[in-house]
Design goal:
- The complex is a heterodimer of chains A (246) and B (128).
- In chain A, 80% of the residues lie in helices and 0% in strands.
- Chain A is mostly helical.
- The longest helix of chain A is centred in the C-terminal third of the chain and has 33 residues.
- The chains are: A mainly alpha (246), B mainly alpha (128).
Chain lengths: 246, 128
């Protein structure tokens, strides 16, 4: 007859395995996604936010250090780079439809992302936020996979950058229709582009659900904005950093 | 589906190599993106396998940054002290970003509309 293994030992075994971190991450995201679909894709019911909160609670309750969790979850984290490369496809699809508008969109993206970075950094700094937080404001207006790549190069926290990006996406997706109505912009391609710059992935989902053209332009804008920032930001900052005192 | 993933990994690998040896300032995946974009522009089409994988990545992009975001646990005290600064900065910035981007495009659009009207009017005159 087999010796009975106490539950606690199974628990110790399981929580030491990388599989455990993967299960929590994917299961909480799946739950969040189900709720999101149930809530008719309302931006407040963000699957990423739900997953992050539940995972934080789970590992805090289990007394699992973050490093230990990340050891398992890094397999998901690794795919960020691959997902970045995949953004070439929506950019290409957008290119096909923006004949004659390339220059306009390029200018709008550059101005938009400059305003986004300058306002966030200036306000955070003026209100006395710590250097860590101010630094992470630089890349937050770019889609998260690229933002975290930029954050690593600027040696600021990729974690805070990712969190700020997720919050920005939620705020943007919720507020975008009101903002765009307030400035009286009604062309779908313009609305889409603005949402792609301001609200990333969540904004795109919202844009696609309203209008297909808006969705295509939003995806294109998100990817292109990431590329422009990834190339431009480190260059601009090397010249500006000494003057900003950061 | 596998062929789509393989293509993406190959472009990513090429980008990483380029970044390591020639352009250290730009992240490898971004270079991979640019290479793939150039390739698509040359070929003038996206094969269905690549389109499928790219689309699922775009739809569930959020899942991929859960592991990094969970690190927020380590920053909770710092965020709590600066909660007001963080939320004001994020809120004002997102409103300005969306409004300014849309307005810039709207201005361009008005100008091109005006020019088009001018051309059609011109043509009309010639016709008379």
């Amino acid at each position: 007859m087999n010796k009975r293994i106490p539950i606690s030992e199974i628990w110790v075994y399981l929580s030491g395995d990388p599989l455990f971190a993967l299960i929590i991450t994917l299961a909480t995201y799946q739950l969040g996604y189900l709720l999101y679909v149930r809530a008719k894709r309302h931006p407040l019911v963000n699957p990423v936010a739900i997953s992050v909160i539940l995972t934080c609670l789970a590992i805090a309750l289990m007394d699992m250090p973050y490093e230990k969790y990340f050891e398992g979850a890094q397999f998901v984290h690794f795919l960020l780079g691959t997902a970045t490369v995949a953004l070439a496809v929506p950019i290409y699809n957008g290119f096909k439809r923006m004949q004659g508008k390339i220059f306009h969109i390029w200018v709008a993206l550059t101005v938009g992302s400059t305003v986004s970075i300058a306002s966030a950094v200036a306000i955070a700094k003026w209100m006395g936020a710590s250097d860590n937080i101010v630094g992470s404001m630089y890349a937050k207006s770019v889609t998260a996979p690229i933002a975290m790549g930029i954050a690593e190069r600027l040696s600021v926290s990729p974690t805070l950058t990712a969190v700020f990006t997720v919050i920005t996406g939620m705020l943007g997706a919720i507020l975008a229709p009101y903002i765009l109505n307030a400035v009286k912009v009604h062309q779908w391609w313009i609305r889409g582009t603005a949402i792609g710059v301001g609200a990333h992935g969540l904004g795109i989902t919202r844009a696609f659900s309203v209008n297909e053209e808006a969705g295509v332009f939003a995806s294109m804008a998100m990817g292109l904005n990431g590329v422009i920032s990834a190339i431009g930001l480190p260059i601009v900052l090397t010249y500006l950093r000494p003057h900003l005192g950061f | 589906m596998i062929s789509g993933l393989v293509q993406l990994f190959l472009w990513q690998g090429l980008g990483e190599l380029l970044s390591k040896f020639f352009l250290p300032g730009i992240p490898g995946p971004v270079l991979g993106l640019l290479l793939l974009l150039a390739f698509l522009c040359l070929r003038k089409q996206v094969d269905s396998d690549l389109a499928l994988v790219a689309d699922s990545f775009r739809q569930h992009l959020g899942l991929l940054f859960v592991p990094a975001s969970v690190g927020v646990l380590l920053f909770l005290p710092e965020l709590q002290t600066h909660a007001l600064a963080v939320s004001t900065a994020l809120l004002v910035s997102v409103i300005l970003t969306i409004a300014v981007t849309a307005l810039v495009l709207k201005v361009f659009w008005y100008f091109s509309l005006k020019r088009n009207k001018h051309i059609t009017m011109h043509k009309g005159h010639r016709h008379e």
